[in-house]
């Protein structure tokens, strides 16, 4: 890759994906590159393939089915990443935080991923302080997740994903369940993560009005293929 322009951080190369028993592919010979540090919004109609595109990158939640083509993270096929590298390099935030929040108390929620990867306690505490500060979560650390508003749950979810310091943050329609104010606050946080921490952001969303001023690129996915980029 020497001498080339900025290295593509993520690349879907000729990706075709069929869910089991479905004849039409959910993604069809799709080519897309996202550079390190970009903020990309994937839009398009429901069923267009946004969620499938994101999940194929995150091995732990990859759908079962037939995959052709390659998906690369910094030039390495995601299937070949070690489980630890795959878990920490790529963070995923889904639409329903309740499906991702697992342990109850906010502080434990933040620690959960790092504990799973066996990270040292001192590092965990340092990162917890940093992340809680960034997200303004200090007052909520000892609260139970059940007591939080939808927007707060989403923030905790995002914060817990960032505890593992991913290079890439995937968000699958994160605004869908939020009221307009909470959605704007979440977007502000995501933009700051992109600007200040240089995290690559790939986010799916069908209402793009609020995103136009924030995103570097808008990609429209229709019937599993790129409609425009
Ligand atoms: P979007 O996120 O843009 O709404 P999806 O990636 O969820 O699109 O869906 C793309 C296509 O794949 C749709 O035709 C959808 O019906 C199909 N699909 C999604 N999930 C499954 C599944 N678990 N089993 C079978 N087909 C699925």
Q: Identify the overall geometry.
A: globular
Main sheet makeup = 6 strands, mixed
Overall radius of gyration? 17 Å
User: Helix tally?
Assistant: 7
Strands, total number: 10
Task: Kindly report how far apart the N and C termini lie.
Answer: 24 Å
- Mean residue pLDDT: 90
Protein described:
The protein is globular. It has 229 residues and is α/β, with parallel strands linked by helices. The chain has a six-stranded mixed beta sheet with strand order 6-7-8-3-9-10, sandwiched between helices. A four-stranded antiparallel beta sheet has the order 2-1-4-5, covered by helices on one side. Mean pLDDT is 90; it is low at 1-6. Helix 4 (106-116) packs parallel to helix 6 (150-162). 35% of the residues are buried. Strand 4 (66-73) and strand 5 (76-77) form a beta hairpin. 33% of the residues lie in helices and 26% in strands. The protein is built from seven helices and ten strands. It has helices spanning 50-57, 83-89, 97-100, 106-116, 121-135, 150-162, 180-197, and strands at 8-18, 27-35, 39-43, 66-73, 76-77, 90-93, 168-172, 200-204, 217-222, 225-228. Adenosine-5'-diphosphate binds next to helix 1.
